[in-house]
Design a protein that fits this description.
Elements lengths: L2 H10 L3 E5 L3 H10 L3 E4 L3 H4 L11 H18 L7 E5 L9 H15 L3 E5 L5 H9 L4 E6 L5 H4 L8 H13 L4 E5 L3 H10 L4 E4 L7 E4 L1 H4 L17 H17 L5
Parallel strand pairs: 1-2, 1-8, 2-3, 3-4, 4-5, 5-6, 6-7, 7-8
Helix pairs in contact: 2-4, 4-5, 5-6
The structure holds 3-methyl-2-oxobutanoic acid (KIV).
The site of 3-methyl-2-oxobutanoic acid has 12 residues, from β6.
Length: 259
């Protein structure tokens, strides 16, 4: 897979598959399962660091996790089907000047070997997307619900502002983004955006009408015993399996059955 394959998949109508991953083992699993693309999301603030929001994630932390994922994907994935590795740019990316943003994104590409960056954005910041693309940095835009705006938003909810979201999607397409994440966008509207823009849409909580889907790996695998978002589907229950296994180990050690 490469950036161009995203567009080819949109044209052919074959859905794009994406998951987040943050470490060595998760990347091995994604490669073995043949995923199209891995996002090293700033959701690592929630699901790796156990914080309530993504706001505290630093650029250095993004670089640390993305370097692991990109290196393991390069070493362990089959070359032809190697997933496209995308790094999330953390809060408050793009809001301290375009030059700073280009330098930060370039550092992520250089230090990690990833293929692209993801940027939470809107039509107002389309010039940032074009500056990154012009510098040679492929951009996955992220519109709809933008978790880095949580302090302004107050709460997470389904995004239905049709005119504004169509404007965002068209602006990031014109600015040169190679794809766009639609987070928690009303399903009918997400379908409309998908039909209207030339680049692939990747939905999360935005219905079946998108060109592809992304979920957070810990949700898909049922790794967090404390929280599952409404839009996620659990395909495994690793938390239960792990807790059961640890209990068995504890009891074996106590009863001198192990070693
Ligand atoms: O950080 C993340 O994992 C994301 C996805 C939910 C799209 O932005």
């Amino acid at each position: 897979m490469n950036i161009k394959s995203f567009l080819e998949k949109k044209k052919s109508g074959e859905p794009l598959t994406m998951l987040t991953a943050y470490d060595y083992i998760q990347t091995l699993w994604c490669c073995a399962a043949g995923i199209d693309s891995i996002l090293v999301g700033d959701s690592l603030g929630n699901v790796v660091q156990g914080k309530g929001t993504t706001l505290n994630v630093s650029l250095d932390e993004m670089i640390y996790h993305t370097e692991i994922v990109a290196r393991i994907a390069r070493q362990k994935c089959d070359e032809k089907s190697r997933p496209v590795i995308v790094a999330d740019m953390p809060f408050p990316f793009g809001h301290t000047g375009i030059e700073v943003a280009v330098a930060q994104a370039a550092r992520v590409i250089k230090d990690t070997g990833c293929d692209a960056v993801k940027v939470e954005t809107s039509w107002e910041d389309a010039s940032l997307v074009s500056a990154l693309v012009k510098a040679g940095i492929p951009v996955m835009a992220h519109i709809g619900l933008r978790p880095q705006q949580i302090l302004n938003l107050g709460k997470f909810s389904i995004q239905k502002a049709e005119k504004a979201l169509l404007k965002d999607a068209e602006a990031v397409t014109d600015a040169g983004a190679f794809s766009v994440v639609l987070e928690c966008v009303d399903a009918d509207l997400a379908g409309k955006i998908t039909r209207q823009v030339a680049i692939p849409t990747i939905g999360i909580g935005s219905g079946v009408g998108c060109d592809g889907q992304i979920l957070v790996i810990t949700d898909v695998l049922g790794m967090n015993p404390e929280f599952v978002p409404k839009h996620a589907r659990q395909y495994a229950h690793l938390a239960q399996t792990a807790i059961g296994a640890i209990k068995e180990y504890v009891s074996d050690v106590k009863e001198r059955k192990f070693p």
